[in-house]
Amino acid sequence: MSKLRYSEIKWKADAFLALTGVTVDEFEKLLPTFEKAFQAHMAKWRLDGKPRTKRSYTTYENCPLPTAEDRLLFVLSYVKGNPLQSNHGVLFGMAQGKTNRWLHTLLPVLRATFRNLGVAPARSIQELATRLEGAVVDTDEKVLPSDKSLPLFVMTAQNDALSAPKMRLNRPHAIAVRKEHIP
Fold this sequence. Notes:
- The protein is mostly helical.
- The protein has two domains: 6-132, no CATH class; 147-177, no CATH class.
- It has helices at 6-9, 13-20, 24-44, 68-81, 85-92, 96-117, 125-132, 152-156.
- Helix 3 (24-44) packs across helix 4 (68-81).
């Protein structure tokens, strides 16, 4: 069974975008920062999640994700598609257990990559406010087209929830009251 590799799919731009959610150019801009974050992570941690003690990380020949490109493709396709780990493993030629280990290693690396690039989501209102200080807000009023310029299907469509046809249901109603309040 063939494994999905970056070197094979990078030439298929539409499939690459559908699989990862980024273009090949955006992917290649992420790659150096991702690899630096990966090497920093692996200098401290082993693949099984335990702290590294003696040996440094090296990529073996039989590694399921031998290149930085394959590792980034692996984690981006997982984040985009959110498949079952067993399905994702089949795509990359791994068992579910190895897929789980690689995902638990690479997801924090991807988060660190986004933080290093300054594109991680804001975690508080204060952080969002500081990010938006230099942003320009467009407050100009927009001129809406007149009804004459709208296409026919827009004019005839029911776009209001209240304009939908109403249906009466004939159900018996039960009212519960106390006997002492009945005249």
